[in-house]
What we know:
Elements lengths: L6 H19 L1 E5 L2 E6 L6 E2 L1 H4 L1 E8 L7 H17 L6 E5 L4 E7 L9 H9 L4 E5 L3 E6 L5 E6 L8 E2 L3 E11 L2 E10 L1 H13 L5 E5 L2 E4 L11 E8 L1 H13 L6 E9 L5 H26 L1 H22 L9 E2 L1 H30 L4 H34 L6 H4 L4 H33 L19
Parallel strand pairs: 3-17
Antiparallel strand pairs: 1-2, 4-6, 4-16, 5-6, 7-10, 7-13, 8-9, 11-12, 12-15, 13-14
Amino acid sequence: MKRVAKPVFFIVALLIIALTASSILGxxxxxxxxxxxxxxxxxxxxWGIDIKGGVEATFRPADGVDATPEQLESARSVIETRLVSxxxxxxxxxxxxxxxxxIVRFPWKEDTTNYDxxxxxxxxxxxxxxxxxxxxxxxTVDYDADGNPIMKTPKDETEEILLDGSMITKAEPNVYDDxxxxxxxxxxxxxxxxxxxxxxxTTTYLNQTISIWMDDVMLSYPNVNEVISEGKAQISGSFTxxxxxxxxxxxNAGALPFSLETVNVSSIxxxxxxxxxxxxxxxxxxxxCFITVFMIIAFRIPGLVAVIALAGQMSIIIIAxxxxxxxxxxxxxTLPGIAGMILSIGTGVDANILTAERIREELKRGKSxxxxxxxxxxxxxxxxxxxxxxxxxxxxxxxxVFGPFNMLSFIFGxxxxxxxxxxxxxxxxxxxxxFIMGIGAARLMLKSISGLKLLRNPRLYGGAKNER
Length: 468
């Protein structure tokens, strides 16, 4: 066996510990009264309706619009795109042609404190029409909670529309360092028509202002310093990471075919509740402690390495669910999603046990420590891959069928989408994490730690002989 350098074990273990701690605790900075999330942790996960409750709202076309079934379906599709783009998968959404109503149920945002259902539906029910206009004249001004002005209603020359959101092919949140200050922006890419119109606009208004509006609100008013012909632009405006992400989501989803007015809105009580979630968390910690003790007593050094790898596997799952970095949305975590996480961790334990048992068998056959580790890891690999690939196939099928694609929703119904999709998602991520940690990192650490002179005794790896 080609030995791995001795420090590798400590480097990989420390990286896993740091990753686990950051994924669980997150990282925030505080400047005065302003709290900024740099890394998302467990507290930033968006919990599903079954755990935290949510919002139920009924919409109808505003201003007396008599919507056609096609327009109503288009509005439903836009709302669904906004939900999915925000990683809200635990939702129910229906369009009723006979009464011209759209009914939606979705969970609270992860940072919700006031639980105001009217505020919760604003993001998904906004018309969300993005426009570029000459100048920056406005009629009225409001102020947000931090005292920042919000310019509203274009006037005079600003009423002219140079181009709009229908000419945008992609919008995504981005972040850059502005002389030590983190700035969040929304990057835009235009289609051919938008590229040509944006080039014309920046040519006509060179060294002048072009303002960017979302519906009736001015987002920013940059000065045109050069002609832009590449079909790309950025929207800046002192956004937070969450605001930049939400704006990009609205632009990608497109504008609703008509304005919506709320007929009814109410809060939904959770079927499980926050207290039950805490109880599950305590149970999970106790279970992990038992697994740790069992693995170390039963398999010694391979057991210790397995526990570290399992921590890394769990951290990857949490990272995928929480969003980790603020520019990514938190995935909606439901009870079936938690079940998928637990099942994937179980496969991780199984993979490490299989490897440890193979190493023990090779040692009992009289092989040297290095040969036993090499043969044990090699002989167990095919069985682990076969088992994990089977799970991955099942998880992918669940995601495709019950995810945003809704491939068989006409059979099972839309209400099953969120629950089963969450299960498939966490199961898939956990199994992929098992490949990274249970196979990659664990074997790397095992081959490294076995090179330490104090830990060369085969008894520490399940053997019976005190050979080196």
